[in-house]
């Protein structure tokens, strides 16, 4: 359920349960009856008919005149048929049946059904007004049509209690429906907010990647500019030196283009102070990350099968480092004391696989807040690098993080 389906459901209505409208409150705007509506209306009709028949039988046993008895039966039958209109005109129908039941007791069952429908489909003020009128009518009815078989006081108390019970039941049903509507609205808002937070996390991850690429490209383009300037100012340099400078320029331009292809479509946010000028990690610095985690008290097992980390493309190495860093951070927060295993496999042409896993924590864990945005950012980073990332719980209750990244041959 959303506001598009029920445009009258506004936050102000949710804040005040006395004025909140529910689906079906506006009878003329109500959609067609469902199967459930037909069943409920049929049960209500049969209930009103049963009460009317019992009251008519009691009137006959009390010796009521035949003409009055026939009139009572006709009024009761019409009142029972009018129950089918209770969803469209609950206020008018309830007011009419209250007056009719004061004179014709056989309409009492239909009057009770209309009061229940009124309490369900209308706010407190009209229910309180007509409910007070119904209580007065229930108290006055034994005096208008006395029953010689029972005392007047008993009839008054029974009638008033019956009216109050029906009104209370209807208001309870309405309150429960209001609660359901409010909870659904709150769930819709929470879902929308979660979607916005996920989009924001993806945008921040893209911006962080763009900042990293900016630093790397700036370094390579600066190197390219230096060697090109040397060739410009030393046209008489030895051929070997010219060839070496040209090779550096070519390699730097090629690597810069490779990195640039990875961030096509990524918007770069304005530079945030000195954050973008820090040295960028690579696969070769993974050992330092593990050593730092061990110094912090973690038990970490590093299984790195890459013999020459420097041969791994810098962008791929950075992504592996960030994945391992996030995996160690999550394990430190959510599984303190558990042994973490970091596995790196792969080679040129087959790609690079990084796997971070930890078992379930051995003892109680203090609740640490986490939004999951780190994993969203890692997924975005791996996707932009041409790979993919998976994460989730393991069968033993632990957590695993696995990613594959391309490594050109």
From TrEMBL:
Top-level enzyme category: transferase
Key words, A-Z: ATP-binding, Kinase, Membrane, Nucleotide-binding, Phosphoprotein, Transferase, Transmembrane, Transmembrane helix, Two-component regulatory system
Transmembrane segments: 38-56, 68-85, 97-120, 127-144, 156-173
GO cellular component labels: membrane
Domain Signal transduction histidine kinase subgroup 3 dimerisation and phosphoacceptor: 206-271
The protein's name in its UniProt record: histidine kinase
InterPro entries xref list: DUF7134, HATPase_C_sf, Sensor_HK_TwoCompSys, Sig_transdc_His_kin_sub3_dim/P
One GO molecular-function entry: ATP binding
PANTHER family named in the record: NITRATE/NITRITE SENSOR PROTEIN NARX-RELATED (PTHR24421), NITRATE_NITRITE SENSOR PROTEIN NARQ (PTHR24421:SF10)
Domain DUF7134 per the UniProt entry, residue ranges: 37-177
Reactions catalysed: ATP + protein L-histidine = ADP + protein N-phospho-L-histidine
Entry's EC annotation: 2.7.13.3
């Amino acid at each position: 359920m959303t506001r598009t389906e029920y445009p009258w459901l506004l936050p102000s209505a949710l804040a005040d349960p006395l004025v909140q409208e529910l689906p079906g409150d506006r009878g003329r705007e109500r959609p067609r009856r469902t199967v459930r509506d037909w069943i409920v209306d049929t049960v209500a009709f049969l209930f009103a008919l049963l009460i009317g028949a019992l009251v008519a039988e009691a009137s006959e046993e009390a010796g009521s005149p035949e003409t009055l008895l026939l009139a009572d039966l006709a009024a009761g039958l019409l009142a029972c048929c009018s129950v089918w209109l209770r969803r469209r005109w609950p206020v008018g129908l309830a007011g009419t049946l209250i007056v009719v039941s004061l004179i014709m007791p056989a309409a009492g069952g239909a009057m009770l059904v209309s009061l229940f429908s009124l309490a369900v489909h209308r706010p407190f003020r009209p229910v309180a007004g007509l409910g007070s009128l119904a209580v007065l009518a229930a108290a006055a009815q034994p005096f208008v049509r006395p029953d010689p078989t029972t005392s007047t006081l008993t009839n008054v108390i029974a009638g008033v209690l019956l009216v109050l019970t029906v009104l209370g039941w209807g208001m309870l049903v309405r309150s429960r429906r209001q609660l359901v509507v409010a909870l659904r609205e709150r769930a819709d808002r929470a879902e929308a907010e979660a979607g916005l937070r996920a989009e924001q996390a993806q945008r921040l991850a893209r911006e962080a990647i763009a900042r990293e690429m900016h630093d790397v490209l700036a370094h390579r383009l600066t190197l390219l500019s230096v060697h090109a300037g040397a060739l410009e100012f030393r046209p008489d340099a030895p051929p070997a030196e010219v060839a070496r400078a040209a090779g550096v320029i070519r390699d730097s331009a090629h690597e810069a283009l490779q990195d640039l292809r990875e961030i096509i479509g990524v918007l770069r946010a304005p530079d945030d102070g000195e954050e973008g000028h820090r040295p960028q990690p690579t696969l070769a610095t993974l050992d330092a990350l593990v050593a730092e985690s061990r110094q912090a008290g973690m038990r970490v097992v590093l299984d790195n099968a890459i013999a020459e980390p420097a041969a791994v493309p810098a962008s791929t190495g950075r992504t592996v480092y960030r994945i391992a860093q996030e995996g160690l951070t999550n394990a430190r927060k959510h599984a303190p004391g558990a042994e973490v295993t970091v596995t790196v496999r792969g080679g040129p042409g087959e790609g690079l696989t990084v796997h971070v896993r930890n078992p379930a924590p051995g003892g109680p864990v203090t609740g640490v807040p986490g939004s999951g945005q780190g994993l969203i950012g890692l997924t975005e980073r791996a996707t932009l690098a041409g790979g993919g990332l998976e994460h989730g719980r393991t069968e033993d209750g632990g957590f695993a993080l696995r990613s594959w990244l391309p490594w050109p041959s």
